[in-house]
Design a protein that fits this description.
mainly alpha; 16 helices
Length: about 600
């Protein structure tokens, strides 16, 4: 709270002169009878205060409602911005996919292409679907519009004779026709809905579902045939190398099993216990808000609350956690399968290299028998290399598992920290509200205590003031009588003075009053100025100035050395410097001024 706002919390109420409590305290020392209380006035005052309180409450509620509306408006504005960006992104993706499909169809529909006939069938089937759609529209939608136009024309034609029996009969026939069309449309929509459900079920259970299922990477387990076909003169070396494929498969299978065990509760359902449509809608709403967006989680949680009003926030947050774990499980499974395929490919390449080196070693042994022992040692070295490579891969896999577990723990810790921060924030807000109410109660109690003390002081002061006022009233009555007597004497003296003054003035008027004889002819005679104008004897100098000039000429003004010095300094552009001020203060006028006209402006500079 700033200092300027403190006055708004100070009560400045002052009672009027007829306040009953003040009257009671002031008269307590001398009067034993109280005046009757005006209860109608008190009721009117209480009703007025109550009405003012109701107005304040309405204003507060209006402010709260306005704040709520503004908050809702800001949220909707942010939702609209996110929806617009997502719409632009999806529209661009659709256009790119459509262009890719058109390019793919155009490339494969050429005559020399292998699949030209198949794509030609696709085009024929597409044109057939367009024809069927147009025919369906003509058979179902166009009659509805025609019926609508006919009904509008019928209403326009019979709008002035709606009360006749013939019009009522026509109206009943029209309503029967409309009800029949509505029933047909309802049956048609139900049939279309059933066909839609059947097509969706076929897509989920048919060959398209198998194609989508097989798009996931599959690992060919066991020893590959290509490894079996490799030539190796050392059967033990070949058997040990091929055994590595089996060991590699077992290790990766164990990783997959461990992953499934850790997320058994997550993968038990594809939708987390929700309906498929609700789950799909949940994912769409969450995905349409980009990850780099500010307040992303708050926005999509608010949108989910609007979309699923029957679900609580806890249920939405629980499903959100399930989606995170479900996504993590599939990403982790995909990474393990990718590592599995890569390790098998690397192992196969390593086996080819090892077997090639073994073949070269055997050939060298056949050429030179004396190096047989060295060849065995080389085979042993190669075997050790493979073993070492296996140990390295095992160590790398363990390190990857450890890093993955650490990353998972970090994610969980981060989520827990976010939850704790939110809890602390809410608890802090609650403590602030509680502290505010506590301070408010303390200030109210403190104010009541101060008011009570002030009331006691007022009672004591009023009692003392009552005794003091009585003495002052008596004293002021005496003083007032004295002043009245003095004022009356002054007024009498003033009247006497005025009479004497008027007498003196009248005497003075008699001495200066002119005595002129009556001469009516003088009114018709010319004045002296008019006679001078007629005769023209007066010599008028038209070159004479209208007024006499008692100033100075330019030469007299410029003869002052101070003016010439100021002019030179101004031309040099240094008239505002300290040096110019100093020189001007030291320059003396051509004549010394009188002592009474001496200036003291520059004496202190």
């Amino acid at each position: 709270m700033s200092g300027r706002d403190y006055r708004s919390f100070i009560s400045n109420h002052r009672g009027d002169g007829n306040d009953k409590f003040v009257k009671r305290f002031t008269d307590s020392g001398t009067r034993a009878v109280y005046k009757a209380v005006d209860y109608d006035k008190l009721k009117a005052f209480a009703a007025e205060r109550k009405f003012a309180g109701q107005e304040s409450l309405v204003k507060v509620k209006k402010i709260q409602q306005t704040s709520k509306i503004n908050k809702e408006h800001n949220l909707v504005k942010q939702h609209k911005l996110a929806w617009h960006k997502e719409f632009i992104r999806q529209n661009n993706i659709r256009k790119r996919q459509q262009v890719d499909v058109e390019v793919f169809v155009r490339q494969n529909a050429e005559d020399h292409a292998v699949s030209a006939k198949a794509f030609q069938d696709f085009e024929d089937y597409e044109s057939m679907l367009v024809t069927d759609f147009n025919q369906f529209k003509t058979d179902t939608v166009d009659p509805i519009w025609n019926l609508r136009e006919d009904l509008q024309y019928w209403v326009l034609e019979h709008q002035h004779d709606l009360d006749t029996d013939e019009t009522k009969a026509d109206h009943e026939r029209v309503m029967k026709t409309v009800d029949s069309v509505k029933e047909q449309q309802k049956q048609l929509l139900d049939r279309l809905h059933n066909e839609q459900l059947a097509l969706e079920q076929d897509l989920h259970l048919g060959i398209l579902a198998e194609i989508g299922h097989h798009m996931e990477k599959k690992v060919q387990q066991g020893i590959p045939e290509e490894a079996f076909d490799l030539e190796c003169p050392d059967l033990d070396l070949k058997a040990s190398v091929l055994q590595e494929f089996i060991l590699l498969d077992e290790k990766h299978r164990e990783r997959l099993v461990d992953l499934e065990i850790k997320h058994a509760d997550v993968i038990s359902s594809d939708t987390g216990g929700w309906d498929a449509k609700d789950h799909y809608l949940f994912q769409v709403i969450v995905d349409q808000y980009p990850h780099d967006m500010q307040n992303r989680r708050m926005l999509y949680i608010d949108m989910l609350k609007r979309q699923f009003p029957k679900m609580t926030r806890a249920e939405l947050v629980a499903h959100e956690d399930w989606c995170i774990y479900y996504k993590y499980y599939h990403e982790r499974r995909k990474d393990i399968v990718t590592d599995w395929i890569r390790d098998r490919r690397e192992l196969l390449n390593k086996a080819k290299v090892v077997f090639a080196e073994a073949c070269v070693a055997i050939e060298y042994e056949e050429v030179k028998n004396e190096f047989k022992q060295k060849q065995q040692e080389m085979c042993q070295i190669l075997y050790q290399k493979v073993k070492q490579w296996r140990e390295q891969k095992t160590e790398a896999m363990l390190l990857e598992q450890k890093l993955e577990e650490q990353h998972r723990q970090e994610v969980l810790i981060h989520m827990k920290e976010e939850e704790e921060k939110e809890k602390k924030k809410r608890q802090h807000q609650k403590e602030k509200v509680k502290e505010y109410h506590t301070k408010l109660d303390e200030s109210r109690t403190r104010q009541e205590e101060m008011d009570r003390k002030r009331l006691d002081e007022l009672q004591k002061l009023l009692a003392e003031q009552a005794a003091y006022d009585k003495e002052r009233v008596k004293f002021r009555e005496i003083q007032f009588l004295k002043k009245e007597q003095e004022r009356w004497e002054k007024e009498q003296q003033k009247i006497v003075d005025e009479e004497e003054k008027e007498a003196r003035l009248e005497t003075l008027r008699q001495t200066v009053r002119p005595i002129v004889e009556s001469d009516p002819v003088r009114v018709w005679q010319d004045t002296e100025a008019w006679q001078a104008h007629r005769t023209g004897e007066e010599d008028i100098n038209i070159q004479k100035p209208l007024y006499d000039n008692y100033g100075y000429t330019s030469q007299q003004v410029y003869s002052d050395p101070r003016l010439r010095l100021e002019h030179k300094l101004r031309e040099a552009g240094v008239h505002n410097t300290d040096y110019a001020r100093f020189m001007m203060s030291k320059m003396k006028p051509p004549q010394e001024p009188r002592r009474d006209m001496e200036s003291t402006v520059f004496k202190n500079t």
